[in-house]
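HOLO CASE FILE
Compound: zinc ion
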Amino acid sequence: MKFRIEFALALSIFALTAKAEKIALVNGTLINPDKSQIVQNATIAIDGDRIAATGDAKTISAPKDARVIDCKGKFILPGYIDTHIHFFQSGDLFTRPDGADLNSVRPYKDEVAWVKSHVNDVFARYLRSGITSVVDVGGPFWNFEVRKTANQTAKAPRVAVAGPLISSVSRPQLDLGDPPIVKIDTPGQAREFVRKLAAQNPDLVKIWYIVDKDRPVDSFRPIVRATIEESHAHKIRVAVHATELETARAAVEEGADVLVHSVIDKPVDDAFVKLLKDRQTILCPTLVVFERYGRTFSHQLNLMPEEKAWGNPEVIASLDVTKIPQDKLPARIRDALARPDEALDRIKKTYDIALPNLKTLEDAGITIAGGTDAGNIGTIHGPALFREFQLMKEAGLTNMQILQCATANAAKLFGGDTGAHIGKIEKGNFADIVILRSNPLDDIAHASDIDTVIKNGAVYPADSILR
Ligand SMILES: [Zn+2]
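Model generated. Tokens follow.
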């Protein structure tokens, strides 16, 4: 018994000293995208899990008892934040049987079991990519356990979550008892479901506002209204999937706090831009996901070197559709393989709308938060963010704006007390930092030239994280 107490005491003292370690980053260039701040020859003092002081070497000196890390020639940024991911999806070919049913090749229940047993692997891949916080914008109730696990795991990003999506359509293929998508038919049902979600303390409530010729915008609108009213009554923000201009407009008019995708059917108009500005709506463009289904299915996947290096190899290997026996290919993949140019054409048409829309909203001062929709087929957990950066660049955003979207703006979407203490390298904030070998302001491709990642004050040489 005595031994146990001493052992426990020793452990807690160890935890305390580990937590209270003082670190000083010196001689590097600090980039705080929030205010476009650049500090040459910066000193950043870290005390335990927090940033204790930051400034140029003339005003701040490294504390005497600190471990000094020389960052000469390096660039120090807040850790990146991906504000649109899904832990219940692996990114592999079998993860959305509602979109491409491959149960005859790999049963969906096996896919779900794999996903559940690889949560720590996914966490590590985010850290390797310099991503120290993520927002899961919808999945099964099991998502709340993922958040808990992340909170108890050092080598994991901070996690904010929404629970199951409140949806206008059902997706029975995904329902193994804890469905990620729940069809709601009446405002009363919506309120009841929000109350059930509220018991889990979600960071967001998510609405899947899917419209088509049988389900016009107005038919689901009363449910959107009831969901938002009930969520706001519980002080929970609401994120809405609405990819058409009129759907997105309706969602924001009803009080949506976050739009989780770009508008992809029409150019945004002045009234829409003003609406987002007046309501301070945050928009997450998720450009990368719009190309990845079509490119995967038509065997024209364009993974970046970062994705190949840091994505899960099993997930990436699965994405080669030519390895699936012909007779087991769902029609959607067969058609894409038969007409690969049409797949690329559809992607081009989407980007011809989505990229200028992003530029318009950015220029108007709308808060744009970086995010990928990782976990969807072909969108790789972690490094997909670097393809998102490329596409944001193509849209005409500056490198500083892109970094701002993925740090300070993303922290606003993350929300809560944690969101208020991430996304900027400032005294009192969490010590979540990425150190780069080359300057991302010269070329956004340098954003993945990662030397070191610091999460919660713990320092990880980037090369060591996936070893
Ligand atoms: Zn999504």
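CASE NOTES: Residues 7-18 have pLDDT under 50 and may be disordered. The first helix runs from residue 2 to 19.
CLOSED: yes
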